[in-house]
C-alpha cells in the first residue's frame, strides 16, 4: 500500500513537471524570440548564436532550471529570452541585476491620456529597449553584449503584454482579483500572462506555424528608437478601453480602479485572443527588425 502511494506521488510530480508553462515569462517569450530568430538572415543568426555561446555556464544553468530543462541543455535564443525573469529569483546571488526589476514595466499616472517620451527618462520598459539596443549594437562581442541581447528579447515581449504599461496602485492588474478563478489564474495580470494564451490550446509548434503564416501580412518598418513610445502607447490604449475591464474612465478621463472583484465577460477570451496573437506577432517582427539593425 505504501509503495503504491509513493508511486502515485511520483507520477503526479512527473506530470506536474512535464506540463508546459503558459506564462508569458516562458511560453510567450519563447514564441516571440523563436519567430524573430527564424526570420533573421543566416549571417545574423550565426552572430546571435555566437553571442549565446558567451553566456556563462552558471547563467545557462539558471535558464535551464527556470524552463524545467536538464542542466546541460544547449542554450537557444527562445529559452534565453526568459533569463530576465529567471534572474529575478536570485536577488542575493546576483544583486547587480536587481536594478533591472523596474525595467520590465512602465507605470504612469491614472490621468495620463497617452504615452509619450516625456513620461519616463530612465529605468522603465521603453527606455530599457533603447538602452540595450544601443548596447548590443555598439559593444564588442562579450558577455555584456550577450546580456543586451537577452534583455532585448525579453523587453519586446513585455512591452506587448498590455498590463506591463499600466498603474502601480494595482501592480499592473496583479491586485485585481477575479470573482471566479480563470483556470489557474487568480488576477488580471496573471490572466494576460498565462491563461489567455492557454485558451488557444496550441502547442509551441502550432503557435509558430500559426504566426509564421501571418508574418508577411504586416509591414514592419526598420527600427528607430522613437518607436518604443508608440509600442507602449498601443498597450496603454488597449488597457483603457471599457471592454478590457481594467479601467473605468470618469468624466475627467481619469482611469479609476474597478470596484470589487472582476467578473470577465463571457466572450472575453474569444474577443482578446486574436488581439493577443497580433501582439505576439508584432513583438516578434519588431524584435526581428531590432536584431537586423544591431547584430
UniProtKB/TrEMBL annotation:
| Pfam families (UniProt xref) | S1-P1_nuclease (PF02265)
Signal peptide span per the entry?
Answer: 1-23
Listed SUPFAM superfamilies: Phospholipase C/P1 nuclease
Keyword Disulfide bond on this protein? yes
Q: Which GO terms describe its molecular function?
A: endonuclease activity
Q: Which UniProt keywords apply?
A: Disulfide bond, Endonuclease, Glycoprotein, Hydrolase, Metal-binding, Nuclease, Signal
Looking at the keywords, is Hydrolase present?
yes
This chain belongs to which protein, by name?
Endonuclease
The scientific name of the source species is: Colwellia marinimaniae
